[in-house]
Amino acid sequence: MKLKITLLPGDGIGPEVMGQAARVLRTVADASGHDFIFDEQLVGGAAIRETGDPLPRATLDSCLAADAVLLGAVGSPEFDALAPSERPEAGLLTLRRALGGYANLRPIVCFDSVACHSPLRQELVAGADILFVRELLGGLYFGEPRGRADDGDSPSAYNTMRYTEAEVERVARVAFEAASGRRRKVTSVDKANVLETSQLWRETVTRVAGDYREVKLEHMYVDACAMHLMQAPRHFDVLLTENLFGDILSDEAAVIAGSLGLLASATVGGSVDLYEPVHGSAPGLAGLDCANPLGAILSAAMLLRHTAGLETEALVVEEAVRAVLEAGHRTPDLIGSGGAGLRAATTSTMGALVAESFAGIADSLHAYHAV
Ligand code: IPM
Ligand code: MG
Asked: Is the Cβ atom of 167 under 6 angstroms away from ligand 1?
């Protein structure tokens, strides 16, 4: 198989975690005989510095011509004073819209070996396995009109939360399809006691549920959901949210997994799939070789599964990550709370360990198939 992958390292810790994700993908290619062709391009603050534009034409063209895009992170305090449309984040938002993926999948899995690192009680988080399906192209992020009105006595600013029925329906279908292959439960998040968009959201999701009789649907207000996530994370299977609610709740849910650095995401439904860890650019950690690359590596595993259809390779990468954690290797985000038998690892060591573990598991699989 030949796969064209555009790599967008971006800002802050982005290039470091991306380096390790690419290393693991190269190991997968070597072990399985597939041909992955990488094209590295600028995005975000790094692109503004070079070209003045957070999403240069060359980057967009490369992404549109690729089979998949893998992004590190965007954002840098250097650009904090700029208007939203000129900031590094605007590059990512424009890219998301151009690629067209409207369903952002964010799995929150609490690995047994890291359950002790969650600030929540271990018996609460152990075994939690949630899939966020976050709507990614609508709501406050893209709604018009938006802007600032500075002409009155008191300057004002406004954003619009707008959803069409069709936008809700297509992402709801992704959630129900995903739930059908899991524990068959969808929790749809809204604020239908206050917002019209949420009322439309709830009506539409309820109607779509009629096509998936085997899946149980529950509705939950976003404020209550924020609490229940911390109180009873194992209650949830698939969590369906609009754009901003999903942004907020998925960072909160990182507490269940033990670290934001572990979370991966895939954006599907458009012309080119986009993969990115959930964490941001963490400028304070940049260049220190201490960021957790596992979110980026697990995003690469999602790429193998969803875009390449290489389910076995994806499972083996996930298994390799699990094995490295079980062996006690930890980047500082996870080692903070301590624990017996833990071994401090840098970003690059962690990537090397996962690649090595992948190659080991792949070898034994080959040996197994050979007999
Ligand atoms: C995320 C990030 C982005 C978002 C930012 C960087 C624009 O927080 O992917 O969760 O808000 O969608
Ligand atoms: Mg976010």
From this structure: no
